[in-house]
Design goal:
Number of strands: 9
Helix content: 40-55%
Radius of gyration: 36 Å
Distance between the termini: 118 Å
Structural class: alpha/beta
Order of helices and strands: HHEHEHHEEHEHEEHEEH
Shape: elongated
């Protein structure tokens, strides 16, 4: 599928997968130096899975794990899925995926806690974690990603900084502080990291970003680490042609002059009305006496 067709397909599928992350997924998944399977924990309606599926190479396995419409393993998780993912069904996911690809990925229909029964250790080159937002579950997903990733493999954590997902933030940054997770880059929605030296990957990423004018990036120093920040540039508002600016300026000046004239005429009319009102008030008693004198003159004497 061509890039325009894929982008059109992604637009049709509901979900939260922004352009900067789409481009970053494409870059990480297209890395020729990486070999292995691909895993997505939590897929919603398939927006990111559709993009991932377009980068699975021959001989690789793409596995998707989600509860879909099934019951969650605990009350807190059940409340979360009922509140945020009530529209999610496996049938809808499969329809969305098959609208772009000819075959489905391997689907694990259940909680992410069972993923290690289906995906072997040290087999994956890329893992996308976007399942539960609850700390306990995300912490387990971090451990699962660490287990299945091969040396040099990359993991992307969704919602690592959103105000409604503090459990994700805690689990991810705990992994950075205590489990050896090395951040590579962050977008507004996702943190990309690996267990290994991120510097060579960051260098290649920065070279690529330098050729992508639609992406804004910078590098922050975090102690002995460096972190690349990436976001999509906002499209500038189209400039108004000079000829149109001149025309609009002329029309504005003409309208302003007409408004001043109308205001002046209105003020003159008000002043004339006030003068007439004063004259009527002064002439009223005189006119009244004159009318009485005329009536008396015209009345025959008795």
């Amino acid at each position: 599928m061509s890039v325009p067709d894929l982008n059109a397909a992604l637009e049709r599928i509901p979900g939260w997968f922004w352009p900067a992350d789409q481009r970053l997924f494409e870059w990480f998944l297209s890395d020729d130096a990486a070999r292995g399977d691909v895993l997505e924990l939590g897929t919603y309606l398939g927006k990111s899975a559709v993009l991932i599926g377009g980068h699975v190479r021959q001989g690789e396995t793409f596995t998707v794990c989600d509860l879909f419409e099934s019951d969650a393993p605990d009350a807190d998780n059940d409340a979360e899925t009922s509140r945020s993912y009530s529209a999610l069904t496996r049938r809808q996911f499969e329809q969305n995926y098959l609208s772009v690809h000819t075959t489905l990925p391997e689907i694990v229909h259940g909680p992410t806690s069972v993923i290690l029964d289906h995906v072997e250790a040290d087999t994956c080159r890329f893992v996308h974690v976007d399942a539960s937002h609850l700390y306990t579950h995300v912490k387990a997903d971090v451990e699962a990603a660490r287990t299945v990733l091969r040396a040099g493999g990359v993991v992307a954590f969704d919602d690592y900084r959103s105000e409604h997902t503090p459990g994700v933030a805690l689990a991810v940054w705990e992994a950075v502080a205590g489990l050896g997770l090395q951040p590579i880059c962050v977008s507004s929605q996702k943190l990309y990291g690996m267990w290994g030296d991120p510097v060579p990957v960051q260098r290649r990423l920065l070279d690529w970003l330098g050729e992508r004018p639609e992406l804004w990036h910078t590098t922050d120093v975090l102690g002995d680490r460096r972190l690349v920040r990436v976001n999509h540039r906002k499209k500038p508002k189209p400039a108004v042609p000079v000829s149109d600016v001149d025309r609009l300026t002329t029309e504005l000046r003409r309208t302003t002059a007409e408004l001043k004239k109308v205001t002046a005429d209105s003020q003159n009319a008000v002043q004339a009305l006030r003068k007439a009102t004063r004259e009527v008030s002064l002439l009223g008693p005189v006119a009244h006496r004159a009318a009485g004198w005329i009536r008396r003159r015209s009345t025959p004497g008795k």
